[in-house]
Every structure is written in structure tokens, then in C-alpha cells.
Protein: Lipid droplet-associated protein
Amino acid sequence: MKQLPLAVRIAAGLAATAVEQARSLPKQLAGLPVTVVSEALQLSMRVQQQVTELAIKGDEVLATLRPAEENPEWATFDEDEPAASSDPVASSDLAAEPDDGAAPDPWAQEERALAEETADGDAPDVLPGYNELTVAQLRARMRRLSLAELEELLAFERGHAARPPFVGMLTRRIATVSAQSS
Structure:
């Protein structure tokens, strides 16, 4: 039997596909809203991802043209702000004694008691105010300390509060300074 021309075979295949699609159309219509929403969400996610990738590439290019600021004006630290009072007990006394005759704030009283405990000179000479420092504040000050000073702080921390984040950070810094000096 002789084969029909290519155009006729393509037309017959196209007609058969159209009939199949027409028969499956009711099933597809039920899921069409979900499919449309899903595809729209996928498209928006792809666009967002591409925009983000372009922004990251742009940041990398601009970073090579413009060096980062040493101390950006928006970055402030506790030690940069002027202290209202150098006496921690006096500053917490103000919060503990309201002017309106109400009962004293128990949190302020506790802060005052803690400040009195730490103001008794129970702090290492290496870093005054060490007991009031947060982990981030200690991290900022550690770079200027020598190996001996770091070891003194570590011994003080282990002998007093033994706070795991402080002990860990001081131990890692001592290891780094020791490795750099060898």
C-alpha cells in the first residue's frame, strides 16, 4: 500500500489530537482555576528570583567600584552613645522611684540590686564594666586586647558567671591570637 503524503498524515494527526483534547476538556475545566493560579504564582516567583539575582550581581559590581564604609553613619553601638550617668546605681534609682507616688517598679529595683553587686569592684581590671557587657559588645572590644588580657578575662569569666557564650567566644579568640602570634 502506498503511503499518503506527509501533509495529509499531519492533518489527520492534528484532527485526532483535537478530538482527544475536546473529550478531556470537561476534566481540565474543573482544575483550570487551580492550574492558572499555580502557574501565575510560579511565574511571579521566577520573576522575583531573577530580580533578586540581578540585584545581587549589581551589588557585587558596585562593591568593587565603591569601598565599604569603615563606620557607616547608621551603625551605632552602646559605647558610641553618651552615657547619662557614670554611676549605674544612680541611673537605676531614677527608674525605681516614680514621682507620682506609685509603688516602685520591681524590675528597676532588681536592676539597681544587680548594679550594686557589680559596682563593688567585682570586675576585671582589663575591661572595666565587663559584667554589664553583652556578647556583641564584648566581641567588639576583644580585638584590642592582648593574649594575656584575654586569658585574664577568661579566668575571671570561668570563676564568676561562667556564661557559655562568653567562655566560648573568649576561648576561640585566645586560640586565634595564639595562632597569629606563632
